[in-house]
Every structure is written in structure tokens, then in C-alpha cells.
Amino acid sequence: MRFPEFCGEWKETTLGKISEITKGSGISKDQLSEQGSPCILYGELYTKYKSEIIDEAYSRTELDSSSLVKSKANDVIIPCSGETAIDISTARCVSFNNILLGGDLNIIRLKHDDGGFFAYQLNGARKKDIARVAQGVSVVHLYGENLKHIRVYHPAIEEQKKITRLLSLIDERITTQNKIIEKLQSLISGLNDFLHLQVGGLSTSFEELGTSYSGLSGKSGDDFGKGKPYITYLNIYSNSIVNKEQVDYVVIGDNEKQNTLLYGDLLFTLSSETPDEVGIGAVYLGESDKYYLNSFCFGLHMTATNKVYSPYLAYLVSNSVFRKFIYPLAQGSTRFNLQKNDFMKKKFSLPTFESQKEIARTLNALSSKLETERKLLLNYQEQKQYLLGSMFI
Fold this sequence. Notes:
Largest sheet: 5 strands, mixed
CATH architecture of the largest domain: Alpha-Beta Complex
CATH class of the largest domain: Alpha Beta
Structural class: alpha+beta
Number of domains: 2
Strand content: 15-25%
Oligomer: single chain
Strand order of the largest sheet: 2-11-7-9-5
Radius of gyration: 26 Å
Distance between the termini: 10 Å
Number of strands: 25
Low-confidence stretches: none
């Protein structure tokens, strides 16, 4: 795929021949402040800067900048270390001069080429090449000396800039779409809390509403990766309604006794590194007896079906009052665990069956809109990946 006004072969070279590769200088998280000089730390490439073009620095430091490394507009930066070889190959182009660049960043200062074009190329066609030269096991390192030998391709500067402009327009649309999703999520969350405060409810406990069961047991590493579908920890953590496509697989013997999910089951995470992430819940609204549950979660079969409207449960477990109900039940120091017995007995307020249906009806309309916007975001992201694969050699 190519713009029609351009022709001729792209030139093959190495990064070392078309750029100077250096490193940033030390700035740590605890040296960030509200005021001071704008700066970029390597970890922010994974968390804050989702697009290849950086047009705003989100962090600042009051460190003396005279001895620190400053960006030049068009610099390409890429982490020196990361958790995996694929993650480490995350390139961004800095659009401004004088942004302080942290010590765990490789800086690719191009001599004549467009930084945005090379950030996109390194994240697309060259990503696996970069991953192959990264070194390490528990922590992976990427050295400038290795980057120098990465083979790249470049057309005339006019074509580079036009490709960058096209891809950056898609990135802008992705950014806008993410903001739409965030606002919808905020609206749903606020309305969920408001509706629960308005309708009130009757005091009850989960042991009055159903029975608990555990996830998979007696499994070894060899049992996973094939067999029957089970709901993962991440699925429950990420969704208030279980995503039936987000599963892994486990071997289950013909006569093996393991608990399966029923329609309307509530699933909860048992442990986490922080207390506010313990007891994250999701409701299962799929077919009964088709799925199993991971061993780091537990489930509740709802037996009081005259008191509980299953689709409503997604909004019960995600409202702020319920999260405050869970928080005191998380115990631990380095890792926090949910005290399940206390959880089952502890009283909470449950709206009437009719109020549950009304809450679900109101919020489902917004949730459907949210799902549509998420699918649109996925389409934009897939379009970008297609272009990254089609426009670069």
C-alpha cells in the first residue's frame, strides 16, 4: 500500500547509519513534582503515552536541569528495560525541544529523517527485530549498541511525513474514542451510585441469597492450554459481566468433580496486591454447566431467585457503596485476601426485585452504548495495525 504520487524503492539501512543513539539521564518517580521542567520517564511510555507522537509531557521535576539530557524535536525514544522483549520495543517520537528524558530511555536522534515515521516503523514492522536483540530474563534490557544494527527502510522525507500524518490522524481518533469511553464509564458509575441511593433496599447477606463454591483445584501446569473453557481472573477483574470470549482452557477428566458456572452466578476475586482490588465481582449470564472457574476466584450460586434479578448484579458489584462494603474484608500485608466466611455473613442493602429490574433497565441502555463505542475503538485500532503492516516493508 502506497500513496499514488510516490514511486521508487525504499532505501534499506541501519539505525546506526542514520541516527545518533544515546541515553537519557537519571530522574526517578520520587523526583517528580507539580512544578518545574517537563520530563518523560521510561515507564510512562507504557502507561501514559499510547500514541507514537508525544505532543505533551505529563510529568515535571524541579531537579536542576543543567546536567540532565534534553530532547530535540523529532527525537525517537524507546525504553532501555522492560518486563518482556515485546513490551520493550515501544517507540515514541518527542515533538518538542527541551523535554527532560529519564535515564532508562534510549534516544534515537535522526540526522535527516522524520521521527514520527520511524516511531511507527519500529512499533510495526521492526517490533520483532527489536525484541530479538533485547537481553535478559526477569528484566529485559535493550542497549543502544544493539539498536544501531536494527535494519530499517526509508523513502523520501516527503513520503515519510505523509505516512506519519495519516497514522497520527488515526491516533487522534483513537484518543478521542478513548475519551468518549471514559466519559460514558464515568456517567454509568455516577448514575449507578445515584440510583442505589434513591431506591434504598432491605438488609440481607449472601448466605441468605445463595451458596458459595470454589474454583479449579488439583491442577498442574500441564493441565492448562487445552481442554474445557474456564473463566480467568483477568476476565472477572476487567468486566462486571463475564466476557464469554475471554477464556483459557484446562483438561477436565471424564469423572473429575469440578464446579461449573450456572446462569446468574456471581464471581469474585479472592486476593490482590492492594486491598481495594480484592473482591472485584462479575456476574455470569451465559449457559449453565459450560464453563469452569479459575482457582484464584470463587463463585456464588444464587438460590433466592425471587429476590435477585441476575442482570442487575453487574451494577450491584460495581457501585461505590458495595465496594466500601468489601474493603474491610480484605486482610494481609504484602498481599491481601478476602475473608470469605465474613463476606458471606456480612449484611448489605439489596433493592427490591422490581427496583433491581428498573436499575438494570436504565443502566443497560448506557452499557449497550458503551459496548458500541468499545467496538468502534477496536475497529480504529485494527485499522491502524493493518496500515502499520501494509505501509512498511
